[in-house]
Fold this protein.
Amino acid sequence: MAVELYFPHDEVDTKNPNFDLAADYLELTAFFSEEARSFTKDLINATEIGAEDDYETVDEEMTDREEIVSGAVRRIDGRRDALGGSYPFTLDENGDVLTYVGNEPSYGQAAYVLSLILSHLKAVSPILDGSAVYPTDAEIIELRKYFQYFATAALAAEVNGRAWSFGHPRPDKTNFHTKLAEIWGVFRDGVLQAAVGVPERPQDDQIDVFAARLQPDGLPGFLLAAGQVATGNNWREKSLRHHLEKVFPSRWFGQQPVTMMLCYHIIPFARPDDEFFDDCRVLGNVLHRLRVPYRVTEAQGLHEQGVAIEAFDQLAVAVEWIKAYAARGAAAA
């Protein structure tokens, strides 16, 4: 027996299949399997169960089914190539069996699994909805918090410097003004002073992570990134670019910083290669599921060197949740 996951026929078994979704289905099936594996032929079986008789010949039907499998395998190969050891699955040389190898996941592998789960909450995808392993509401709150911490680590590695988890609620429980003063006390670029009419009780003013690679001379003009972490279905509607350039500095600084902030959007989703170009066009630099895990792996090296990455200690807590969640799936199978 296996955990029953919903197969999204309307997006996979079509003339233009969503191969990323097909690959995700195989990964989730392997993750929750008692044997920690799935078979690519499962895609053919799943498509046949809900198939409509709109094929003229059996050969045409089988060709389309096999194209779904080969497309999913190509996406899995691409993920493995992009992530290396941060990818928690292996595919046998024939492309038949996908195995979950994250029984003791690294931080990078845990970031991948967490991203995979967040990609299939019911507001985004139907695959997990209604299953025995769907996270509780309380767990979903925790998962989004964990992803905020992984995003903080990923942005630290992206700039090769320290990082702060600024999104509300903050791990250190500080309010907006206290946290902003702490960060800019390190940067020493600009003078904090709230403008007339700004929100009286700001939470994070749309910025979830700050990361910087400071210069040894202590002067401005260093590498500084600000990122928004988005895990909901409306993630593409939350561009930070204009706000970061025009609104945030004028709201909170009497003398604005001269250091330019790079805009980042950090998401748990896998994206089609062609669409990713426009994602960056609209949102700025994007860290998605094929980038966050390996950046988290790099951040572990920074942390070991003594670079300050806020909430990095919470990644171990997330790893334990991932392990327990996998065990829950195996028990439900």
Summary: The beta strands are 37-39, 89-91, 97-100, 162-165, 191-192, 209-213, 223-229, 253-255, 261-266, 285-287. Residues 58-83 form the longest helix (26 residues).
